[in-house]
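[STRUCTURE TOKENS]
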Amino acid sequence: MFTASSSSKPALFSTARLAQASGIVKLLAWAAAVLLIAGLFQLGASLLGVDFWILDKSSGAGVLIAIALTLLLLMLSLETQPMAAYGIVAECGWRRRALRGLLMGAGAYGACVGIAMVCGVAEVSTESLTGLRIAKTALGMLSAVPIALTQQIIFAGYLVSLLRKDHSPALSVLVPAALFAATATVGRWGTESGALLMAGLVLLATLLGMLRLWTGSITLSSGVLAGCIMARKFLSKSRLVEFDPDALHAWLLAPHRDPRMGILPMAVLAGAILYVASRLLREGERQAVADQQSDAAFKRMVPFSNLLSFAPLDRWLVLLWQARFRVGLAYLPRLTVTLIASALNTIISLPERLLAPLLLRHDPPDPVFILGMPRSGTTHLHNLLSLDPRFRSPRNYEVFNPHGFLTGWTTTACLAPVLTWRRPMDSVQMTVTSSQEEEFALAAMGCQSPYWSFCLPREVSRHDAYWQPEGFTTRQQWQWVRNYKLFLRKITCLRRRRTPLLKNPANTGRVKMLRRHFPRAKYIHIVRHPHQVYRSNQRLASQGLVVFQLQDPHPVDNYATRCLENYRELMDSYYEDTKDLPRGTAAEVRYEDLVANPLAAVKNLYAQLNIEVTPEFQRRIDRYLESLKGYQRNQHARLSAEEQAEVDGAMAPYLRQWGYLEERRAAA
């Protein structure tokens, strides 16, 4: 089952080397990749006889923009810096600052249109206003915030910070501004309207980049851009205002029916740039500092943080129907983004969804399952064992897009902005390629899962049943096994001899099901002091799950209040279902021992499972542990006497079994 593999030298053009390169080198690599992929698209269209031109405004421009932005998001996903380094941080007063920016952007755009109306360049028209047009207008305005945030994450956040490390403020702002304008005007290059629009957008992006340096975050700049987009969407979608391109002052206010090309709006932008530049010179660049309370509020409201957004639309509609579409008003932007992302990914991933079960017929080796109560240290153990080249662990981009990760490279890149955060419950850095638990994949593939209660916490009683095998009907178990094996075939399709290494706390109570369908599997159970587990799960409930929510949890019946009962039931089920496993099939480790001496703990686990620790695996562990130096775990408040008594009462047998009672007596 396990054979040693030979080590290989890192590739000359590896992603690790690219991540360490300078900002200019990264941008040159990005430009080369855009040209290469765009050229391949154009060549393919020519060979197939398709009427397609990559720079054509009506068809090719969208493809080129998608390629450019996707590659920038992929570059962002390779970075190891926390998102705060790119100005993506929820500082104190972020909502007030974002609202101020929104009003400034919408007000400035509206003022330019108002002046155009006074000067006879524009007039109000209600002739084409219908119910359908009003609905389209509302939808367009709702999209302004996620569009602005995405653009600012890439341009004012990532690119400005990338260049600022080695270059002057002017260069670090102007280069992203030029790229922003060039991307937005694809299809108009070489035309008069394109030149005017590019000039206006360069000025706008320059202002946004300078606001980012001045305030230390993208909050204000995102608000300004969202306000501009919202005002523009309102006017263009509703057609309430008609511009006259032949009016006397059209060249000054709205040439080609577009205020963004006007000389007066450009002059206003230039004045704003000079003002912000003067403030920057006097006050210097600011580094925004995250505020814990503000951070929690930000996570509650951020629209594109739900990592299950790429689940098929048919699955989302069933779940929302079961919840009677009870979605909190504050979560409507998140629901909108989720359903749009789901609908697009459902279409894009449909060929893979239909063909993968027919084409992938191999049987990968039975997995090694890492089990344990959530927040017991399963992630740390998974990260360590996934360094073994004989294993194949699911990655974030596979787990959150299980139907489309083999072919949907465009949608995969969209995960980058939300997969480069540090996890709120333990500050562990995430990337698109980090190892992840496959329970999210099973949920997104249509299986029943307790993780759906993260999105719909008011339905916790419905979804919590699936922590245990008894919660599944016969048909649901069949669907679970079918999707599980399909997912394992997909992640091992290129490395079929590798053994899947799966970390899934939800499987801790399902060993009975796992043994039935994976008879040669091995199990590793990690335990941690129940006081720490309880504290960490309370933090998960308040800080981590909020990024998924479409409803506010019930004040009495929720993940936090059910935690202790679920904990005891999972442990009871695990030990009952593994008591007759053959020797060499199951192993156990304490989190405290793993942290104190990781290499010794891993060697002990492998000895229990009759697996050899290869020299290459040991070298990788040493390098990984070296990279963790300086990592600081979150510090949790001590349990109250009442909480401690409650945990001790529920977990008394396991406190004794795992040796924590003896340690407490020895320390007393």
Remarks:
- The radius of gyration is 27 Å.
- Strands lie at 122-124, 241-243, 368-371, 391-392, 499-503, 522-527, 586-590.
- The first strand starts at residue 122 and ends at 124.
- The mean pLDDT is 87.
